[in-house]
Amino acid sequence: MRTVGVEEELLLVDPDSGEPKSLSAAVLARATQDDPGQDVFQKELFGQMLEFATHPQADMADLGAEIVRCRKEAARLAGEFACALAALATSPLPVSPSISVNERYEWMARRYGITTQDQLVCGCHVHVSVESDEEGVAVLDRLRPWLPVLLALSANSPFCQGRDTGYAAYRSRVWDRWPSAGPTELFGSAERYHRWVADMVATGVILDERMAYFDARLSARYPTVEIRVPDVCLRADSAILVATLSRALVETAARDWRAGTPPPDHGVCLLRLAAWQAARSGLDQELLDPATMRPRPAPDVVRSLLGHTGDALTGSGDAALVEEAVAHLLHRGNGAHEQRLLMERTGSLRSVVTECIRHTQE
User: Fold this and answer.
1) Which residues span the domain enclosing 357?
2) Which pLDDT tens digit goes with each residue over 131-171?
3) pTM for this entry
4) CB-based contacts of 125: which residues, under 8 Å, 6+ apart?
5) Nearest of 246, 175, 221 to residue 53 by alpha carbon
6) What's the number of domains the chain is made of?
C-alpha cells in the first residue's frame, strides 16, 4: 500500500478581529520548547503562516486522525499567544505580510519583488510514495489533466485582502506568478525530468531545485510524488478526501504506465485553461473534462475522477468512504462555497474568518 503524507499551511489570526498575526516564530519556539525533537511544525514564508507535516501513513483513517490532531495541537500552541488558526487559503481581511527571518526567504523577496510579497497563500501538499524516480515521472505525466479537479474540490480562497476575487480558488492564480509554477509538458523519463530541472536552476532565475514549483513534482526530500495544486481545505474531512484521491490517482497512473498505456498528450496551453476554469468556478459551474478538454458540469467531472480511479480505490479499501465523502462535499460545497454563504448571511469578512476558525478544528 502506498503511503501518504500531508503538509498543510494555516493562517495565524486574531480570534476576535480575524486579522492575520505575525506570530509563527513564537508559536514554533513554544512547540520546540514543549518537544525539542518535534518535526511536525515548520516555518513558512510569512510570519502569519504556520505549516505542519504529517508522518507517512498507509491507512487513511490514521492519516485523517493525524491531520485533526495536528490542527488541534497547532491551535493549542497559537492559543498560548492569544491567537487562533484558520484553514484559509488566502486572508479575507487586509494584511501587510511580514517575511520570516530566513536567508532563503530574504533572497526570494529581493529577487522577485512584489511577487513574493503577494504570496500570503496557504496550500495543501500531498506526498504519495513511489518506487523509483522512473515510476514517479511516469505518474507525473499521467496525472496532469486530473490535477484541476483536485483544485476544484479543495477550492477555499474566494476572498483576498478585503475583496471578493470572483474566484473559488484565487490562491492558485497568485501562486502561478512564480516563474517556475504551473503545469508541465510530458517528461517521458526520469533523466529528462532531472535535466529539465537542472537547466531551470542553471538559468539563475530560480535558486535551486526546491523552487521547481510544478503542479506536481518529484519531492527533493522524500521518495514521493508531491501534488501541490490543492488549496488548504477548510475542513479536515475535505483534506482527507483530497489525499485519498491523490493516492488513487498515483496508483492508477502507475498501473497505466506498467500496462503500457500512454499518457494523455494535452499541451500546457490546455492544462492552464483547465486550471483557470477550476480556480474560477470550483464545483459550482463547469470544469474541463480531463479526457476531452471540453466543458462539462463539475459534478460529472468529479464522478469521472471516481470512475478513473475506481480500481485503485477498491484495492485500497477506500471506495465506499470516498463515494460518501464526495457526495457529502458536492452537497455541502467546498470551502469557497461555504465562505460565500457565510458572507451572505453575516455581511462581514470578520465573521467569515471567525466562523472558519471553528470549522478548522472540527
Assistant:
1) 4-361
2) 999 999 999 999 999 999 999 999 999 999 999 999 999 99
3) 0.97
4) 6, 7, 226, 227, 228, 230
5) 221
6) 1
